[in-house]
Amino acid sequence: MTQDMAEPVDNRIFVLILQHPQERREALSTAPLITATLGRAKLVIGLSWAGLSRLAGEAAEPRRWAVLHLGAARADQATERREFMLVDRHGEPIAQPKAILAGLKGIVLLDGTWSQAKTLWWRNPWLLKLHRIVLDPPRPARLGRFRREPRRDALSTIEAAALALRHLETTSQAADALDAALDGMLAAARRPDRRAAR
Question: Model's pTM, two decimal places?
Answer without folding.
Answer: 0.86
